[in-house]
Structures are given as C-alpha cells and as structure tokens.
Amino acid sequence: MGSLRSLFKGGLLMLVSMFALTAMSSSAEPVPEQKTEVSSEYKVELQRNPDYACTQCHKDAKDGMHGAHSKAINPNNQLPVTCTNCHGKITPEHRNGVADAMRFNEDMFPVDKQNQVCMTCHQPEKLRTALWAHDVHILKTSCASCHQLHPTKDPVQGLDQKGQIKLCVDCHSKQQQQYHKEKETP
Amino acid sequence: MSCSRRHFIAGMGAVIFMTGPVNRTLAQTMSINGIRYGMVYDETRCIGCTACMDACREVNKVPEGVSRLNIIRSGPTGEFPEAKYQFYRHSCQHCDNPPCVDVCPTGASYKDAATGIVDVNPDRCVGCQYCIAACPYRVRFIHPVRKTADKCNFCRDTNLAQGKLPACVESCPTKALTFGNLDDPNSEIVKLIENRTTYRAKVHLGTEPKMYRIPSKHGEIKG
C-alpha cells in the first residue's frame, strides 16, 4: 500500500512539473502564435509540379526557364508562371505534331495569336514606355522575333543605342531586299 | 587719235556697265549648269531608327551634345495597337537663297557654286552666331571643339569627296533618302519629285530650300 501511494505521489509530482514546464514554455513565446493567427487565411499550396507532365517528355526544357519568367507571377491568377500559361493546353494529338501548343517565333501560328499570349500579362502602356517601337510592331512581328523568353538574360534588354539601331537596320534591310526580290520575280 | 579724256571716261563707263551684268549672268549660269544637289526625305518610308543620325556623327566626327541631323519623332496618334508615329528630318535645307550666307560678316558661310551646297569655312568663321540667329530652320550650332558654326553639308568634305553618297543616305535601311542633282531631268531625285506629292519647309520665307519631303500619311504636314 505504502509503495503504491508513493508511486501515485511521484506520478502526481511529475504531472504537475510537466504542466508547469509546458505553461512556462508557452508563456515564453506568445508573440509568434498571435502572428500566425493574423495571417491565417487559407492558402492553397501546390501539391505537385504543374510543369511535371510537360518536362517528362521535354526533358531539355526541365530547367529551361531562367531569368525574368522563372520568378514571374502570373497577374491573372497570382501563381507562378507555368508552361501551359504561355504554351497553352495540348490535345491528344500533340505527339503527332499538330498545332495545339503555342510555338513562339515559328510560322505555325500567326503573329497576332502569338502576341496575344504575351499581351495577357504585358500591358501596352508599359511596353510603350519601355520602347515606342512596340506600338508599331505589335501587329506585324512576333515578340519572340526580338525577345528571348527562356534564357537568364533577354539579350534585347541590355542593348545600348547602337545595338538597338542595328536591330532595326538589320531587320528592315532584309525586309527591303525581300520586297525587291519579290518585285523582280513575280 | 582723238582719244580725249571725255571719250576715255565714256568708254570706261560703258565697259563697267557691260561687265557688271555679264559677270552676274556668268555666276548664274555657273550655278545652273553645275550640279545643284538636293535631297528628298520620304516620311512615309522613314521608320525612325536614327541610323542616319549615328552614321552622320561617325562620318563627320560630330561631337556628342550637338548634331547636324536629328530625326524628330512625334506621336503616337491613334489608339494601341493602331498607334502611329510621324518622323521629321531636322537638318540643313540647303537653301538656294540662304539667309545664313547673307548675314555672315566674314564670308565664312557660303553657297558652293559647283554644287549648290551651303557650307561653312571654319578658318573664316569668328563664331559670332549671326547665322544661327538668321537660320529659320534652326539647324546651325557652334562646334564645341572648333568653336565655329557647323551644320550639315551633305558630307561634301567626307563622303561626297570620296565619291560616295552622304552618310545618312548610305545608312538608311528603308531608302527613305534620295540624293541627287535637281538640274538633271533624268536623275532619280527629279523623277521622284515629279511623281510624288512633296513639300518643303517654310517656303513662304523665300529661302528656296532644296530639301524636299514626301509627307507622312498620318498627322499634319509640319512645313
């Protein structure tokens, strides 16, 4: 009996001391608990990589997205930009080379279709501020014919005045040559 | 001989009277029979890339901060994505009746008789800036190194002297500039002026500029 009572006493003491310890520890850090309560809106976290299905086949593109677009947040849904945001959804015939996923700077899709994709995020006012020439090319040339969308640094953005002029001159001279060629051989 | 003083004076008077007008007609025939260089700037072809400005600066060694040639962009007119821009070439008009030459007190500013090009002789220029004030097109400036008046001279001492076209004409990717002899009826420039709608800036001032412009389809003509 005596031993049983002492065991009970000891157990009680341990319980009390544990309670006191937990109480102490909880009183030691009350601030972060309050903080989490303030921003406790329910947030959906992506459980899987949205690009997984694409990169299973397009293995070279697995780490293909660098630079501005890799960290970009899609302003339309406030989520990171994925492959399908720009390239669109594929059809079951995708492997047979049908024109489903958007290809940039290829003749498979017309210029306006290509540029519409970019324009869902990039606003005309900001494009105009960056360079006036955006205004006069948007219906005629694909964005990707000057810009590179995947690499770390878009080579066009670091261009100085001379480089910018060269870009205009090279493209427009080629256009003129082509025009004259077509004129000569009807 | 009856060569009296009276006859001599009368004879000399006649000689002076005759030689005066003869000299003037001679000078005029020189400018008419020589080359009369002019330029056509096609605003409808210009894309505003400013390659001409760059080429001019390089060929003529024009320092930063000043320029012989500017392409002024105005606009946009219309709404995105149909916004349009207009371009205007701001450079010497090579007037046949140049006010800058008239006001120059040292004769540094002159119209070259062989080509009709208005040019500046930097050795004669004292930098008084009368020409800068007189030019209605505001194209003259003081060269920051030479401290003399400077402006476009159709590359007379650089490209033209080497038998090439002016730097701006050579560098234009869309062939918006045509340079040639306005007195040659078979030249490309004369045919262009005959066939296209052209205007010249501030003709009402009587300066008779040799810079012709094919007006842009958008916005107003700024002549």
Report the sheet-strand fraction of chain A.
Answer: under 5%
Give the total of beta strands of chain B: 9
Distance between the termini of chain A: 116 Å
Beta-strand portion of chain B reads 15-25%
Report the structural category of chain B: alpha+beta
Q: Sketch the major β-sheet of chain A.
A: 2 strands, antiparallel
Give the H and E element order of chain B.
HEHEEHEEHEEHEHE
Instruction: Give the structural class of chain A.
Output: mainly alpha
Output the radius of gyration of chain B: 21 Å
- What is the overall silhouette of chain B? elongated
Number of structural units classed as domains of chain B = 1
InterPro entries (chain B): 4Fe4S_Fe-S-bd, 4Fe4S_Fe_S_CS, Cyt_c_NO2Rdtase_NrfC, ET_IronSulfur_Cluster-Binding
Protein name (chain B): Cytochrome c nitrite reductase Fe-S protein
Keywords (chain B): 4Fe-4S, Iron, Iron-sulfur, Metal-binding, Repeat
Domain 4Fe-4S ferredoxin-type (chain B): 37-65, 83-114, 116-145
Give the key terms.
A: 186 residues, mainly alpha, two-stranded antiparallel ribbon, 50% helix, B: 223 residues, alpha+beta, Alpha-Beta Plaits, two-stranded antiparallel sheet, 6 helices, 27% helix, 18% strand, elongated, Cytochrome c nitrite reductase pentaheme subunit (chain A), Cyt_c_NrfB (chain A), oxidoreductase activity (chain A), signal (chain A), heme binding (chain A)
